[in-house]
């Protein structure tokens, strides 16, 4: 298909926490939480776009680790790809497009008001962090109390 363009989002994990960013614009999305990132420019590699956007928006250097499986439609011919990324250097600040950034412990990930398109990816990231996005732990057989 021609004309599909990619928006990359960075799921930056650092010391067991996920970085979330609150959009400040456009009005329809303002107040929604998302993965920092943006549109991949024509001819640009996804990882290069990820590094560029994180530098522009947050003032940090990240290292893309791997892309999560999935591509989530955003409308107008855009799809969202989400990459796990390490924080290499810098302290994230909301320099551009965001009103606030926040480090989330695994149990807090589900509590934010994420942009609708991000929900499936948030579930995947929460799973990577070892916490179901429902906020409720899944208790496997091994951790169930023994019944006598
Ligand atoms: N960065 C980002 N954008 C998302 C996410 N979820 C989601 O629906 N979007 C939408 C919001 C925007 O409509 C679009 C990304 O556009 P953007 O404004 O961040 O892209 P950009 O930084 O390249 O900005 P511009 O050059 O177009 O001004 O994708 C997400 O998790 N991260």
UniProtKB/TrEMBL annotation:
InterPro entries tied to this protein: MutT-like (IPR047127), Nudix_hydrolase (IPR020476), NUDIX_hydrolase-like_dom_sf (IPR015797), NUDIX_hydrolase_dom (IPR000086)
PANTHER family for this protein: 8-OXO-DGTP DIPHOSPHATASE, NUDIX HYDROLASE FAMILY PROTEIN
Names of required cofactors: Mg(2+)
Protein name (database record): 8-oxo-dGTP diphosphatase
Reactions catalysed, as given in the entry: 8-oxo-dGTP + H2O = 8-oxo-dGMP + diphosphate + H(+)
Gene3D superfamilies registered for this protein in UniProt: Nucleoside Triphosphate Pyrophosphohydrolase
Similarity section: Belongs to the Nudix hydrolase family.
Source domain of life: Bacteria
One Pfam family from the record: NUDIX
MF annotations from Gene Ontology: 8-oxo-7,8-dihydrodeoxyguanosine triphosphate pyrophosphatase activity; 8-oxo-7,8-dihydroguanosine triphosphate pyrophosphatase activity; 8-oxo-dGDP phosphatase activity; 8-oxo-GDP phosphatase activity; metal ion binding
Species name: Embleya scabrispora
EC assignment: 3.6.1.55
Domain called Nudix hydrolase: residue spans: 3-126
TM helices/strands, residue ranges: none
Gene Ontology BP terms: DNA repair; DNA replication
Keywords, sorted A to Z: DNA damage, DNA repair, DNA replication, Hydrolase, Magnesium, Metal-binding, Mutator protein
């Amino acid at each position: 298909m021609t004309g599909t363009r990619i928006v990359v989002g960075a799921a930056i994990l650092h010391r067991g926490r996920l970085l979330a960013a609150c959009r400040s614009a456009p009005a329809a999305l303002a107040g929604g939480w998302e993965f920092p990132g943006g549109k991949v420019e024509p001819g640009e590699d996804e990882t290069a776009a990820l590094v560029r956007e994180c530098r522009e928006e947050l003032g940090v250097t990240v290292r893309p680790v791997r892309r999560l499986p999935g591509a989530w439609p955003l409308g107008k011919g855009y799809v969202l790809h989400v990459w796990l990324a390490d924080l290499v250097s810098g302290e994230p600040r909301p320099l551009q497009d965001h009103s606030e950034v926040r480090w989330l412990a695994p149990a807090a990930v589900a509590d934010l008001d994420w942009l609708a398109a991000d929900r499936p990816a948030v579930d995947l990231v929460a799973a990577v962090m070892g916490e179901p996005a429902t906020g409720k732990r899944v208790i496997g057989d091994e951790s169930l109390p023994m019944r006598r």
